[in-house]
Sequence to fold (116 residues):
Amino acid sequence: MKKRIADVIRVAQAIYNKKGFNIITLDVRGISTLTDFFIIAEGSVDRHVKALGDAVMEEMSTHKENPIHIEGQKTCDWLVIDFGDVIIHLFTPGLREKYSIERVWHEGKIVDVEFA
Fold:
């Protein structure tokens, strides 16, 4: 499990390095049967969300991790990258506010990430 927490921290850092914002990392083990961790973040516009998604994919591929599924690549206003036990949601600000998915998982524990 330490490896997965390290993955979560590395992905969150990659998003931060590409100027992603409002980054939240949630540990939902024991709450969700879908995944163990969610990373939720925003990009300023659809192109920025796409760049954040590319950064996530690049970071995970350096550790030989490939996604199970990617959704939203055509519009990139809400991009979901599913690695099984880690799912990343990248939004434009309007859609993140509209869906507020972090409220669905409000019982999750926030994983503290200090960005370098």
In short: The chain has one domain: 2-110. The chain is about 35% helix and 25% strand. The chain has a mean pLDDT of 94. Residues 38 and 87 are 5 Å apart (CA to CA).
